[in-house]
């Protein structure tokens, strides 16, 4: 399949700030893109424009060379060969699982024997073969979600669009479903676009993460890249755990900062220093007697380790981990092995 291209996409619902503005990105065939951002930043609007439920006010959407939508063009949803899975599963309660999954084929008047076979395949892909004759009411939330996924699979869409599909599930089930999505993606080879406000979900699932804020795209990269090299305060604050420190650095310090530079930044009193926001990940905060004095303000045992909040002498707060028991109120000393200037 050809790449899906969003070019300078904009959507206005009325006067005031547009819901989506100047958004450009390309999703290559078979990728799994997570569209990540806080509630209200325009994620659903982007997905609905891709699906064909909303028309862009400006910009364009293309599948390879084929124009799907711009301010003057609107290919209807049923002619885009995409499938959208909604947060509410929208299953027919009076139909069995197999009938629900087969419904899109019935609408398309697919031959019965062929339809039966495709339903079997789709149910196998989500491991629900044994539930074909049940009704949705007799299924758990996770199983219903899998039926919805199977139903979108039978039409063999080029692009699968998912809008916060796990938002209604409890934590245990979410983890199980994350596994299902990864497997589904690997088996089907479909291009997937997955909307979520949950950064750990985005990181765990996707091959690419696009971070949005206030209708704009801030950064798109692999989960590893976004985590290691976030662009700016918003992405840095949204992705992964960490602390953002206000420091003063000499001009030309670079973005990746080592301990000597960070130590100098704390002690820095020289002329000409520039204010900088520096992201420090908890695993880069090492309890070490040669470092900066710190006070433990809180300590939670997480099972594998203690999650700490520390306060430095200058009053700034820092997250850290420790394998050894540490108690709130303890004094300690830390080395910051690495920092990233936002
Ligand atoms: P998200 O999915 O990231 O939570 P949405 O795309 O749903 O964000 O919404 C982005 C903005 O557009 C919000 O301010 C929302 O109120 C507005 N919006 C979304 N859909 C409509 C609509 N149909 N009419 C008017 N405003 C809308
Ligand atoms: Mg939404």
Number of domains: 2
The CATH superfamily of the largest domain appears as P-loop containing nucleotide triphosphate hydrolases
**Structural class by secondary-structure content:** alpha+beta
CATH architecture of the largest domain: 3-Layer(aba) Sandwich
Ends: how far apart?
Answer: 36 Å
Total strands: the figure is 19
CATH topology of the largest domain: Rossmann fold
What is the CATH C level class of the largest domain, in words?
Answer: Alpha Beta
How would you sum up this structure in a few lines?
The protein is of the alpha+beta class. The protein is built from nine helices and 19 strands. It has a six-stranded mixed beta sheet, with helices on both faces. The chain has a five-stranded antiparallel beta sheet with strand order 2-1-4-5-6, with helices on one face. The protein has a four-stranded antiparallel beta sheet with strand order 12-14-19-13, sandwiched between helices.
